[in-house]
Amino acid sequence: MLRQRLSKTLPEARRQRLDELGFVWNALETKWAEGLRYLTIYKEREGHCRVPVTHKENGFPLGYWVSNRRQNKLILSEARRQQLDELGFDWKPPKGPQPIRR
């Protein structure tokens, strides 16, 4: 939130310089988009969204991200739940030991 407030109070020239450098104004939205992108890649490769909790996708902790979405389903916005549903997201965690992927 601080970054978003800062973006409104900075002089336009400074804001533009930060934009040109790729400064992230909304870190939470950026993290969501990154997680969804990696989950999409994983699904295209594996054919499902049952990501082992320890799995990392290109260094991104995708398994943790997926587990967190499941645990926080009720507080996710309808739009975000719909994005996951459209991808075929499995809201129930897999049972039994999961293979460790690197």
List keywords for this structure.
56% helix, 5 helices, mainly alpha, 0% strand, 102 residues
Structure description:
- It is a single chain.
- This protein is an all-alpha fold.
- Helix content is 56%, strand content 0%.
- The protein contains 5 helices and no strands.
- The longest helix has 20 residues, at 27-46.
- The protein is elongated, with a radius of gyration of 17 Å.
- The protein starts with a helix and ends in a 15-residue tail after the last helix.
Helical stretch count? Answer: 5
The averaged pLDDT comes out at 86
N-to-C span: 33 Å
Content of β-strand:
under 5%
Order of helices and strands: HHHHH
Find the structural class using helix and strand composition: mainly alpha
Which bin fits the share of residues in helices? 55-70%
| Biggest sheet descriptor | none
Oligomer: single chain
The low-confidence parts are: none
* Radius of gyration, whole Å: 17 Å
Shape: elongated
Record field, number of beta strands: 0
